[in-house]
Amino acid sequence: MAIDSTLLSILACPQDKGPLLLVGDKLLYNPRLRRAYPIENGIPVLLIDEARDVADDEHEQLLAQSGAADGLA
């Protein structure tokens, strides 16, 4: 189950309140903080304690997978 664009446009990172990038159907990504939030059974889990940090190499992969332009970090 994919997150529709309307829902994605109103979802925000609970930490910095900024927009999130959708990566496939498995996670939402905050490139500013390099934090990934899981999507479980089609439901975004936007809890700071459930997010994970992303390393430099994975950051580049997630940006590419989300279709985001360079320079967001």
Specify Rg, calculated over alpha carbons.
11 Å
Predict the CATH topology: N-terminal domain of TfIIb
Number of strands: 5
**Separation, N- and C-terminal Cα atoms:** 28 Å
Text of the CATH class: Mainly Beta
The main sheet comes to: 5 strands, antiparallel
**N-to-C order of helices and strands:** HEEEEEH
Number of H/I helices? 2
CATH second-level architecture: Single Sheet
Kindly give the count of domains. Answer: 1
What is the share of helical residues? 10-25%
Strand content: 15-25%
**Mean pLDDT across every amino acid position:** 90
Shape label: globular
Unreliable residue runs: none
What structural class do helix, strand and pairing data support?
alpha+beta
Show the helix and strand layout.
Elements: H1 5-10, E1 21-23, E2 27-30, E3 35-40, E4 43-44, E5 52-53, H2 56-66
Antiparallel strand pairs: 1-2, 2-3, 3-4, 3-5
Briefly, what is this?
It contains two helices and five strands, in the order H-E-E-E-E-E-H. The protein has 73 residues and is an alpha+beta fold. The model has no long low-confidence stretch (mean pLDDT 90).
Describe this structure in words.
With 73 residues, the protein is an alpha+beta fold. It has a single domain, classed as N-terminal domain of TfIIb. 23% of the residues lie in helices and 23% in strands. It is built from two helices and five strands. The protein has helices at residues 5-10, 56-66, and strands at residues 21-23, 27-30, 35-40, 43-44, 52-53. Strands 1, 2, 3, 4 and 5 form a five-stranded antiparallel sheet that branches. A hairpin with a 2-residue loop joins strand 3 and strand 4.
